[in-house]
Amino acid sequence: MANDSLRRLASDLKNFLAAQDEDEFISAAAPSRAAAVVSPAPSEAASLPKMPEGETLTVEFPRAKARVQAAATVQPQEPAVTSVSESSLMTTAQKKAALAELAETIKNCTRCPLGSTRLNAVPGEGNVDADLMFVGEGPGFDEDRQGRPFVGRAGQLLDKMIAAMGLAREQVFIANIAKCHPMTDPLHPEKHGNDRAPNAEEIACCRKYIERQISIVCPKYVVALGGVSAKALIADAKSLGALRGKFYDLKLDSVTLPRPVKILATFHPAALLRNPGWKKDAWIDLQMVMAELGLKGAKK
User: pTM of the full predicted structure?
Assistant: First the structure.
Protein backbone atom coordinates (compact mmCIF):
# COMPACT_ATOMS: atom_id res chain seq x y z
CA MET A 1 0.00 0.00 0.00
CA ALA A 2 2.81 2.36 0.94
CA ASN A 3 4.63 1.57 -2.30
CA ASP A 4 1.47 2.34 -4.37
CA SER A 5 1.12 5.68 -2.61
CA LEU A 6 4.73 6.52 -3.26
CA ARG A 7 4.40 5.58 -6.93
CA ARG A 8 1.35 7.81 -7.30
CA LEU A 9 3.14 10.62 -5.56
CA ALA A 10 6.18 10.15 -7.77
CA SER A 11 3.98 10.09 -10.90
CA ASP A 12 2.12 13.24 -9.90
CA LEU A 13 5.33 14.98 -9.04
CA LYS A 14 6.88 13.95 -12.37
CA ASN A 15 3.94 15.37 -14.33
CA PHE A 16 4.09 18.60 -12.34
CA LEU A 17 7.80 19.01 -12.90
CA ALA A 18 7.46 18.45 -16.64
CA ALA A 19 6.05 21.95 -16.87
CA GLN A 20 8.90 23.52 -14.87
CA ASP A 21 12.47 24.48 -15.74
CA GLU A 22 14.56 21.43 -15.03
CA ASP A 23 17.50 23.38 -13.66
CA GLU A 24 15.21 25.27 -11.30
CA PHE A 25 13.84 22.05 -9.95
CA ILE A 26 17.28 20.49 -9.43
CA SER A 27 18.64 23.45 -7.50
CA ALA A 28 15.52 23.68 -5.35
CA ALA A 29 14.74 20.03 -4.69
CA ALA A 30 18.19 18.47 -4.26
CA PRO A 31 18.67 19.47 -0.60
CA SER A 32 15.01 19.12 0.31
CA ARG A 33 13.29 16.56 2.44
CA ALA A 34 11.32 15.43 -0.63
CA ALA A 35 14.43 13.87 -2.11
CA ALA A 36 14.80 11.53 0.86
CA VAL A 37 11.14 10.58 0.71
CA VAL A 38 10.87 10.01 -3.03
CA SER A 39 14.16 8.17 -3.46
CA PRO A 40 14.73 5.96 -0.42
CA ALA A 41 17.33 3.23 -0.23
CA PRO A 42 15.72 -0.22 -0.84
CA SER A 43 16.54 -1.40 2.68
CA GLU A 44 14.85 1.64 4.23
CA ALA A 45 11.63 1.67 2.21
CA ALA A 46 9.64 -0.17 4.85
CA SER A 47 10.65 2.17 7.65
CA LEU A 48 9.92 5.55 6.06
CA PRO A 49 9.04 8.15 8.67
CA LYS A 50 5.57 9.57 8.48
CA MET A 51 5.16 13.24 7.62
CA PRO A 52 3.88 15.05 10.71
CA GLU A 53 0.20 15.89 10.60
CA GLY A 54 -0.52 19.27 9.07
CA GLU A 55 2.88 19.57 7.37
CA THR A 56 2.92 20.15 3.60
CA LEU A 57 5.51 19.51 0.93
CA THR A 58 6.78 22.72 -0.63
CA VAL A 59 9.08 22.97 -3.65
CA GLU A 60 10.38 26.46 -4.48
CA PHE A 61 11.90 27.66 -7.73
CA PRO A 62 14.30 30.51 -6.86
CA ARG A 63 14.55 32.16 -10.26
CA ALA A 64 10.79 32.21 -10.77
CA LYS A 65 10.37 33.61 -7.26
CA ALA A 66 13.01 36.26 -7.97
CA ARG A 67 11.16 37.33 -11.13
CA VAL A 68 7.90 37.72 -9.21
CA GLN A 69 9.62 39.72 -6.47
CA ALA A 70 11.39 41.94 -9.00
CA ALA A 71 8.12 42.67 -10.80
CA ALA A 72 6.47 43.57 -7.52
CA THR A 73 9.25 45.95 -6.46
CA VAL A 74 9.79 47.81 -9.74
CA GLN A 75 9.33 51.53 -9.15
CA PRO A 76 7.67 53.67 -11.85
CA GLN A 77 10.21 55.75 -13.72
CA GLU A 78 9.96 58.97 -15.65
CA PRO A 79 9.94 58.46 -19.42
CA ALA A 80 13.46 58.58 -20.76
CA VAL A 81 14.28 61.69 -22.75
CA THR A 82 16.06 60.59 -25.89
CA SER A 83 17.60 62.80 -28.48
CA VAL A 84 16.81 62.12 -32.13
CA SER A 85 19.87 61.43 -34.22
CA GLU A 86 20.60 63.08 -37.52
CA SER A 87 19.89 59.78 -39.28
CA SER A 88 16.18 60.11 -38.43
CA LEU A 89 15.88 63.26 -40.55
CA MET A 90 14.62 63.07 -44.10
CA THR A 91 17.12 62.80 -46.93
CA THR A 92 17.41 65.70 -49.36
CA ALA A 93 15.40 63.80 -51.97
CA GLN A 94 12.68 62.97 -49.45
CA LYS A 95 12.47 66.60 -48.35
CA LYS A 96 12.12 67.83 -51.93
CA ALA A 97 9.40 65.31 -52.67
CA ALA A 98 7.49 66.10 -49.46
CA LEU A 99 7.70 69.87 -50.00
CA ALA A 100 6.62 69.54 -53.64
CA GLU A 101 3.60 67.47 -52.63
CA LEU A 102 2.72 69.98 -49.91
CA ALA A 103 3.10 72.88 -52.38
CA GLU A 104 0.53 71.27 -54.68
CA THR A 105 -1.86 70.92 -51.77
CA ILE A 106 -1.37 74.58 -50.89
CA LYS A 107 -1.94 75.70 -54.49
CA ASN A 108 -5.30 73.91 -54.52
CA CYS A 109 -6.37 75.00 -51.04
CA THR A 110 -9.66 76.85 -50.56
CA ARG A 111 -10.05 76.35 -46.82
CA CYS A 112 -10.47 80.08 -46.18
CA PRO A 113 -11.76 83.02 -48.27
CA LEU A 114 -8.21 83.96 -49.34
CA GLY A 115 -8.26 80.96 -51.64
CA SER A 116 -10.94 82.58 -53.78
CA THR A 117 -9.31 86.02 -54.10
CA ARG A 118 -5.64 85.16 -54.62
CA LEU A 119 -3.93 85.15 -57.98
CA ASN A 120 -1.31 82.63 -56.88
CA ALA A 121 -0.69 80.72 -53.70
CA VAL A 122 2.82 81.22 -52.29
CA PRO A 123 4.06 78.02 -50.62
CA GLY A 124 7.68 79.05 -50.03
CA GLU A 125 11.10 78.29 -51.46
CA GLY A 126 14.76 77.77 -50.70
CA ASN A 127 17.33 75.24 -49.58
CA VAL A 128 15.55 72.17 -48.23
CA ASP A 129 18.60 71.39 -46.05
CA ALA A 130 18.92 74.94 -44.71
CA ASP A 131 20.08 75.54 -41.15
CA LEU A 132 18.15 78.83 -41.16
CA MET A 133 14.54 79.52 -42.08
CA PHE A 134 12.73 82.86 -42.29
CA VAL A 135 8.97 82.95 -41.73
CA GLY A 136 6.99 86.06 -42.60
CA GLU A 137 3.34 86.96 -42.26
CA GLY A 138 1.74 86.65 -45.69
CA PRO A 139 2.30 87.36 -49.39
CA GLY A 140 1.91 90.89 -50.73
CA PHE A 141 1.09 92.39 -54.12
CA ASP A 142 4.24 91.20 -55.93
CA GLU A 143 4.28 87.81 -54.26
CA ASP A 144 0.66 87.20 -55.28
CA ARG A 145 1.61 87.75 -58.91
CA GLN A 146 4.80 85.70 -58.93
CA GLY A 147 3.85 82.93 -56.53
CA ARG A 148 7.15 83.41 -54.65
CA PRO A 149 7.78 84.76 -51.14
CA PHE A 150 9.51 88.09 -50.44
CA VAL A 151 10.10 89.35 -53.99
CA GLY A 152 8.83 92.95 -53.57
CA ARG A 153 10.57 95.82 -51.79
CA ALA A 154 10.45 94.03 -48.45
CA GLY A 155 11.91 90.98 -50.14
CA GLN A 156 14.77 92.99 -51.58
CA LEU A 157 15.60 94.25 -48.10
CA LEU A 158 15.42 90.70 -46.72
CA ASP A 159 17.91 89.63 -49.38
CA LYS A 160 20.29 92.34 -48.14
CA MET A 161 19.80 91.24 -44.55
CA ILE A 162 20.62 87.65 -45.50
CA ALA A 163 23.68 88.79 -47.46
CA ALA A 164 24.89 90.85 -44.48
CA MET A 165 24.83 87.64 -42.45
CA GLY A 166 27.23 86.08 -44.95
CA LEU A 167 24.62 83.92 -46.68
CA ALA A 168 22.80 83.91 -50.01
CA ARG A 169 19.04 83.65 -50.44
CA GLU A 170 19.55 80.21 -51.99
CA GLN A 171 21.12 78.95 -48.75
CA VAL A 172 18.09 79.59 -46.54
CA PHE A 173 14.42 78.65 -46.70
CA ILE A 174 11.78 81.39 -46.86
CA ALA A 175 8.04 81.06 -46.26
CA ASN A 176 5.03 82.80 -44.73
CA ILE A 177 2.44 81.93 -42.12
CA ALA A 178 -0.38 82.63 -44.60
CA LYS A 179 0.02 81.20 -48.09
CA CYS A 180 -2.33 83.55 -49.96
CA HIS A 181 -2.44 87.33 -50.28
CA PRO A 182 -4.55 88.99 -47.53
CA MET A 183 -6.08 92.16 -49.00
CA THR A 184 -7.92 95.06 -47.45
CA ASP A 185 -10.03 95.28 -50.61
CA PRO A 186 -10.34 91.79 -52.16
CA LEU A 187 -12.63 93.13 -54.91
CA HIS A 188 -9.74 95.13 -56.37
CA PRO A 189 -6.65 92.88 -56.33
CA GLU A 190 -4.99 95.12 -58.94
CA LYS A 191 -4.58 97.94 -56.43
CA HIS A 192 -1.21 98.65 -54.85
CA GLY A 193 -1.10 99.20 -51.09
CA ASN A 194 -3.86 96.65 -50.70
CA ASP A 195 -1.97 94.47 -48.22
CA ARG A 196 -2.89 93.55 -44.66
CA ALA A 197 -1.78 91.05 -42.06
CA PRO A 198 -3.62 87.70 -42.01
CA ASN A 199 -6.31 87.41 -39.37
CA ALA A 200 -6.71 84.65 -36.78
CA GLU A 201 -9.03 82.55 -38.96
CA GLU A 202 -6.65 82.68 -41.91
CA ILE A 203 -3.68 81.80 -39.73
CA ALA A 204 -5.58 78.85 -38.26
CA CYS A 205 -6.36 77.53 -41.75
CA CYS A 206 -2.72 77.82 -42.89
CA ARG A 207 -1.03 76.81 -39.66
CA LYS A 208 -0.64 73.15 -40.54
CA TYR A 209 1.10 74.10 -43.78
CA ILE A 210 3.86 76.18 -42.22
CA GLU A 211 4.31 73.68 -39.40
CA ARG A 212 4.69 70.86 -41.90
CA GLN A 213 7.23 72.89 -43.88
CA ILE A 214 9.28 73.56 -40.75
CA SER A 215 9.23 69.89 -39.78
CA ILE A 216 10.36 68.82 -43.27
CA VAL A 217 13.20 71.32 -43.63
CA CYS A 218 13.94 71.07 -39.90
CA PRO A 219 16.37 73.99 -39.72
CA LYS A 220 18.43 74.62 -36.63
CA TYR A 221 17.02 78.14 -36.33
CA VAL A 222 13.84 79.92 -37.41
CA VAL A 223 13.64 83.72 -37.60
CA ALA A 224 10.07 84.97 -37.26
CA LEU A 225 9.71 88.19 -39.23
CA GLY A 226 7.14 90.48 -37.63
CA GLY A 227 4.73 90.26 -34.75
CA VAL A 228 2.13 88.16 -36.56
CA SER A 229 4.47 85.29 -37.35
CA ALA A 230 6.23 85.57 -33.99
CA LYS A 231 2.98 85.37 -32.01
CA ALA A 232 1.75 82.52 -34.20
CA LEU A 233 4.85 80.37 -33.61
CA ILE A 234 6.00 81.26 -30.09
CA ALA A 235 3.85 79.98 -27.25
CA ASP A 236 2.32 82.58 -24.91
CA ALA A 237 3.66 85.41 -27.07
CA LYS A 238 2.38 88.86 -26.15
CA SER A 239 4.15 91.39 -28.34
CA LEU A 240 7.13 91.55 -30.67
CA GLY A 241 8.90 93.92 -28.30
CA ALA A 242 8.56 91.46 -25.44
CA LEU A 243 9.81 88.56 -27.58
CA ARG A 244 12.91 90.07 -29.17
CA GLY A 245 16.42 89.38 -27.94
CA LYS A 246 15.85 85.78 -26.84
CA PHE A 247 15.80 82.31 -28.36
CA TYR A 248 12.82 80.06 -27.72
CA ASP A 249 12.29 76.33 -28.13
CA LEU A 250 9.98 75.91 -31.10
CA LYS A 251 6.97 73.71 -30.33
CA LEU A 252 4.44 72.98 -33.04
CA ASP A 253 0.82 71.94 -32.65
CA SER A 254 0.26 69.54 -35.55
CA VAL A 255 3.63 67.83 -36.03
CA THR A 256 6.58 66.59 -34.01
CA LEU A 257 9.97 67.98 -34.94
CA PRO A 258 12.63 65.35 -35.63
CA ARG A 259 15.15 67.43 -33.66
CA PRO A 260 15.11 70.57 -31.47
CA VAL A 261 14.67 73.89 -33.31
CA LYS A 262 15.22 77.37 -31.86
CA ILE A 263 13.22 80.42 -32.90
CA LEU A 264 14.01 84.13 -32.62
CA ALA A 265 11.71 87.05 -33.39
CA THR A 266 12.68 90.26 -35.16
CA PHE A 267 11.13 93.04 -37.24
CA HIS A 268 9.49 92.39 -40.58
CA PRO A 269 11.43 93.96 -43.48
CA ALA A 270 8.31 95.94 -44.44
CA ALA A 271 8.34 97.51 -40.96
CA LEU A 272 12.02 98.38 -41.41
CA LEU A 273 11.18 100.18 -44.66
CA ARG A 274 8.65 102.28 -42.79
CA ASN A 275 10.92 102.75 -39.76
CA PRO A 276 14.59 102.75 -40.86
CA GLY A 277 15.70 103.51 -37.31
CA TRP A 278 14.74 99.94 -36.34
CA LYS A 279 17.33 98.42 -38.69
CA LYS A 280 20.02 98.64 -36.01
CA ASP A 281 17.89 96.60 -33.60
CA ALA A 282 17.09 94.06 -36.32
CA TRP A 283 20.78 93.69 -37.04
CA ILE A 284 21.44 92.95 -33.37
CA ASP A 285 18.84 90.18 -33.57
CA LEU A 286 20.41 88.68 -36.68
CA GLN A 287 23.86 88.79 -35.09
CA MET A 288 22.54 86.53 -32.34
CA VAL A 289 21.69 83.94 -34.99
CA MET A 290 25.04 84.46 -36.70
CA ALA A 291 26.87 83.73 -33.46
CA GLU A 292 24.93 80.49 -33.01
CA LEU A 293 25.62 79.36 -36.59
CA GLY A 294 29.23 80.51 -36.61
CA LEU A 295 28.68 83.05 -39.38
CA LYS A 296 31.19 85.87 -39.77
CA GLY A 297 29.02 88.14 -41.93
CA ALA A 298 29.63 89.57 -45.36
CA LYS A 299 33.21 90.36 -46.33
CA LYS A 300 33.80 94.10 -46.73
Answer: 0.71
